[in-house]
Amino acid sequence: MDELTERLSAEQSVEVGGPEPTLEELHTRLTDIGTVFVKFTETRGGTDLGIRLDQEASDLSGADFDARTGTVHVEGTLTLNGDPVRCIADIELATLKGVGRLALVETAGA
After folding, report:
1. What is the DSSP letter of 11?
2. Helix (H) or strand (E) run with residue 36 in it
3. 15, 70, 81, 94: which could join 63 in a potential S-S bond, CB 3.0 to 4.6 Å?
């Protein structure tokens, strides 16, 4: 396992990342695009990851985007420095911040 992957496997602070980290952009990415950006803020300069959203594992039911309240639970996969990982994060809509971690995905033959 890569050293960065290992560091990000512990639960830590995250925020909405990407080129336009707004509530509106997050909503569009969650409901239409299917890719979200999660930024791990406790690394030098932050680590901004693009996540292919797993719609079945993610949960938007606790979110009221119009009122800007509640929490979204997002899960999705990516490859980080050669490691297949799942990003798991809970993000508060009011602040666009929350907690998250990476989990190594076991692959066939591994």
Report:
1. -
2. strand 35-40
3. 70
